[in-house]
Amino acid sequence: MPLSVSNKISGPDAGGNEKRAWGRYHIVEKGDVMKITFIRPLVAVLFIFAAAPVFAGSQDSHALPEPYLSFEKRYLAEFPALQPLMDKMIANSKAMLKDPEQDILHNRICAALAYQMALARKSPASVRKLGPATDLLHNITKDNKKAALSDPVVFGRVEALVASLKKAGKFRDSKDFFTDKSVLTHKKIAGNLALVHHLTGAVWADDALNEAGGFSDKEKQVIETAIIAHSTGYWYFRDSVDEAAGRKKAWRSVFPKPASIVDKLAHDADLISQFVPESVSPEGSKWRQLASKRWGAKDAKEEAHVVYYVFNRLYNEAKTKEGAEMALERWKVIRSELMRSMGLKDSEDPLKALGVPAFWKE
Question: What is the domain range of residue 111?
Answer without folding.
Answer: 65-230
